[in-house]
Amino acid sequence: MRFQRLEIALLVSLAACGGGDPVATMQSSVVTISIFDFYYSPTSRTVPVGTRVEWVNQGPSPHTTTSDVGAWDSGSLSPPTPGGGGTPPPPTTPPPNPYAMAAVGGAFSFTFNTAGVYGFHCSLHPPATNPAFVGTITVTE
C-alpha cells in the first residue's frame, strides 16, 4: 500500500510538471554513410528532421560530400591510413584487405533541420565522369 501511494505521488507530480517536452528531450539520431572509391553506401537514406548525417571516407582515395544545391561541402576527406597507427600484423599474415586494420578516414557531418530532398556528390570525382558516385538524403517531418 505504501509503495502504491509513492507511485501515485510520483505520477501526479510528473503530470503537474507536464512530463517534459518530448521533442526537446529527444536526442537527434546519427546516420552514417560510408564513402568508398566511387560510390556511397548507402546511396540514399530517409531520415526525420533533426538527424545528423555523418559521411566517413573508407576508400583509398580522397573524396568529398558536396550538396547539389550548396547546402554543405565537406572539403577533401582524407582516406584511412593502413595500419591505423597501431601494431601492424606480422608480415606472414597480412589482412585480407589492407584497409581492414585502418584508422578511420576523414569524416564530415551535417544536421538536416529542414524537410526536403537533398542530392549530393563527390566534387573531386563529379557526376559527369562518375555518374554512379551520387546520393540522396530525404528528410521528413
In short:
This protein has one domain (26-85, 99-140): Immunoglobulin-like, CATH 2.60.40. Helices cover 14% and strands 30% of the residues.
Per DSSP E runs of 2 or more residues, the count of β-strands stands at 8
Number of domains: 1
CATH architecture: Sandwich
As a percent range, the share of strand residues is: 25-35%
| End-to-end C-alpha gap | 45 Å
Shape: globular
CATH topology title: Immunoglobulin-like
The assembly state of the depicted protein chains is: single chain
Q: Just give the CATH class.
A: Mainly Beta
Order of secondary-structure elements: HHEEEEEEEE
In CATH terms, the superfamily is Cupredoxins -  blue copper proteins
Major sheet size, sense and barrel closure: 4 strands, mixed
List keywords for this structure.
141 residues; alpha/beta; Immunoglobulin-like; four-stranded mixed beta sheet; 8 strands; 14% helix; globular; disordered N terminus
Describe the structure.
- The chain has 2 helices and 8 strands; from the N terminus they run H-H-E-E-E-E-E-E-E-E.
- It has a single domain (26-85, 99-140), classed as Cupredoxins -  blue copper proteins (Immunoglobulin-like, Sandwich).
- It is globular, with a radius of gyration of 22 Å.
- It starts with a helix and ends with a strand.
- A hairpin with a 2-residue loop joins strand 1 (30-36) and strand 2.
- The strands form 2 sheets. A 4-stranded mixed sheet has the order 2-1-4-6, with no helix packed on it. A 4-stranded mixed sheet has the order 3-8-7-5, with no helix packed on it.
- The longest helix is centred in the first third of the chain and has 16 residues, at 2-17.
- It has 141 residues and is α/β, with parallel strands linked by helices.
- The model is unreliable at 1-26 and 84-89 (pLDDT under 50).
